[in-house]
Write a structure and sequence with these properties.
Chain A is an alpha/beta fold. Chain A has a single domain, classed as NADH:ubiquinone oxidoreductase Nqo5 subunit (Beta Polymerase, domain 2). Chain A is built from four helices and seven strands. Chain A starts with a helix and ends in a 25-residue tail after the last strand. By secondary structure, chain B is α+β, with helices and mostly antiparallel strands. Chain B has one domain: Cytochrome-c3 Hydrogenase, chain B (Orthogonal Bundle). In chain B, the strands form three sheets. Chain B has a three-stranded antiparallel sheet. A three-stranded antiparallel sheet of chain B has the order 6-7-8. In chain B, a hairpin with a 2-residue loop joins β4 and β5. In chain B, α4 runs antiparallel to α14. The chains are: A alpha/beta, B alpha+beta. At the A-B interface, α2, β3, β4 and α4 of A face α1, α3, α8, β6 and β7 of B.
Chain lengths: 162, 372
């Protein structure tokens, strides 16, 4: 039930553009909402949005009563991109796990902060900044959380050399 | 002798709790701005025991990474290794024999009881009562002995394998587990009489440190913290995995939102875990403990996989982004105490410091699990 309504609400963000192309495994996919097989993937909805659609997508989930599970990044060095992944879930027996992802260029990794919507995003974004150097515009306190306070390196970058 | 420091009536001072402080149970630092005994503002500082487990996940094969999972939460390690093997089995499509899943559930629940027992002892000690810790450790010792006999380790278990188990349980283990259940039930009654009914204990916890359900949602709190705020959420019930649907057990939920509610949730959970263990031993099927068809070197298909499990501290999630290689392209660990502790800064504003320390105890922190 919640799955369909959330899917429709997220789909509405892409009104005007064509339906999401069923992505080839591994190849970069276009923005859009995909349903995933829960049994093999562990989540139901997988939405890739543009960075400027992020706040709208997260607001939809906030209003639908989702809680924030985690935020993390992936460094796609071959495509010269960085991906930020947001996980949401529900305190509900009507299970629905939603993954929101957005891609930014690797040399200018900036996405808007969602800590204004979910206060709990604060640490997750600081951690992602620690590990990948992704900047969260508008974050109130983007200083190292897990790394030393004077850290100027980002260990999860694929070209990181210790 | 110097004169005592004079503060202006509105002047605040900074108090550092930790990184080495008995109340934080590990290397956690909380920078508190204090107005006398009251907290004006607090900032939690993490990272003192950060070991970059996620980078190790990229450098090692999936099997080599198994021991890392038990170094996150040293009190309830089996739950975390369970999450990892389930994630790999889900992505690689490995069928696990039923006996193996039953043994996994029994050992995870034993580990949960052990974890809650230690938390119970340490929590009461935070509040100034020393002897319950001794009783709790004594009971926990029985579990550790049992688990040591089958897994070979007392805390940092590496017992589960992709597709099954490292070895089968023997009759001694089953016998010991059967004997443990009535013993533990008796102990739970003793704890209720000794601690839960204590008037000082109640006054320190009841109505203290309210955490609303909405705050839990905004911070992503799970486990006993969420269930103490009236949220009926347990991954074992909400997103059933392993053989948990086979068991008849309840999820304790309290609506008071205070430290006492979080205490009661964990105390009730021990009884529910005992029920699961009891039924598991009863139903334990015969058969193999290892999947027959299992690739020797595990490679996952290309994709992005997620697995959540309910550990003693809440919902633990593991995300594996695979590019088809024998190790993960990206491996993310979502640890429950990280989110549970995050709400501390907001919730403790305006609280008395002693109440805040009791509140911190009621969150059941394990710092290596937070810092990863």
């Amino acid at each position: 039930m919640i799955l369909e309504t959330t899917q429709q609400a997220l789909q509405a963000l892409f009104a005007g553009s064509g339906p999401a192309d069923a992505a080839e495994a591994g190849s970069p996919r276009g923005n859009g909402v995909l349903t995933r097989d829960y049994k093999t993937h562990g989540y139901h909805l997988d939405a890739q949005v543009a960075p400027d659609q992020l706040l709208a997508a997260v607001t939809i989930l906030d209003q639908a009563g989702f809680f924030i599970e985690s935020i993390t990044g992936v460094d796609w060095i071959k495509e010269n991109q960085m991906e930020v992944i947001y996980d949401f879930s529900r305190y509900d027996f009507d299970t629905c796990r939603v993954v929101i992802r957005t891609r930014v260029p690797r040399d200018q990794p900036v996405v808007p902060t969602i800590s204004t919507i979910y206060a709990g995003a604060n640490w997750h974004e600081r951690e992602t900044h620690d590990f990948f150097g992704i900047k969260f515009a508008g974050h109130p306190h983007l200083v190292p959380l897990l790394l030393p306070e004077d850290a100027d390196f980002h260990p999860l970058l694929k070209d990181f050399k210790a | 002798m110097s004169a005592p420091i004079q503060l202006r009536p509105d002047e605040t001072f900074i108090l550092n709790v930790g990184p080495q402080h008995p109340a934080t149970h590990g290397v956690l630092r909380v920078k508190m701005e204090m107005d006398g005994e009251y907290i004006v503002k607090s900032e939690t500082v993490l990272g003192y025991i950060h070991r970059m487990h996620e980078k190790m996940g990229e450098n090692r094969t999936y099997a080599q990474y198994l021991p890392n999972l038990s170094r996150l939460d040293y009190l309830g390690a089996l739950g975390y290794t369970h999450g990892h093997v389930l994630a790999i089995e889900r992505a690689a499509g490995i069928e696990v024999p039923e006996r193996a899943e039953y043994i996994r559930a029994i050992t995870v629940e034993l580990n949960r009881v052990a974890s809650h027992l230690f938390w119970f002892g340490a929590f009461v000690m935070d509040l100034g009562g020393f002897s319950p810790l001794m009783y709790a450790i004594q009971d926990r010792e029985h579990i550790l002995d049992m688990l040591e006999a089958v897994t070979g380790a007392r805390l940092t278990y590496c017992y589960y394998r992709f597709g099954g188990l490292y070895n089968d349980v023997d009759d001694d283990f089953i016998e010991a587990a059967r004997r443990f259940i009535p013993r533990m039930r008796k102990s739970l009654k003793k704890y209720a009489a000794l601690v839960t009914g204590n008037i000082i204990f109640q006054k320190r916890l009841e109505g203290i440190a309210p955490v609303s359900a909405e705050m839990c949602r905004k911070y992503g709190a799970t486990g006993p913290v969420a269930r103490g705020s009236g949220i009926n959420f347990d991954v074992r019930k909400n997103e059933p995995y392993s053989v948990y649907p086979e068991f008849d057990f309840d999820i304790p939920v309290y609506h008071e939102c205070d430290s006492m509610a979080r205490y009661k949730v964990r105390m009730d959970e021990m009884e529910q875990s005992l029920r699961i263990i009891e039924q598991g031993l009863e139903k334990l099927p015969a058969g193999p403990i290892m999947a027959e068809k299992k690739p020797k070197n595990i490679k996952l298909p290309v994709g992005d996989f997620y697995q959540a499990v309910e550990t003693a501290r809440g919902s633990f999630g593991i995300r594996i982004v695979s590019d088809g290689d024998k190790n993960a392209y990206r491996l993310k660990l979502r640890s429950p105490t990280y989110s549970n502790m995050h709400l501390f800064d907001e919730a403790c504003e305006g609280m008395l410091i002693m109440d805040a320390l009791a509140f911190m105890g009621s969150l059941d922190l394990v710092i290596p699990e937070m810092d990863r």
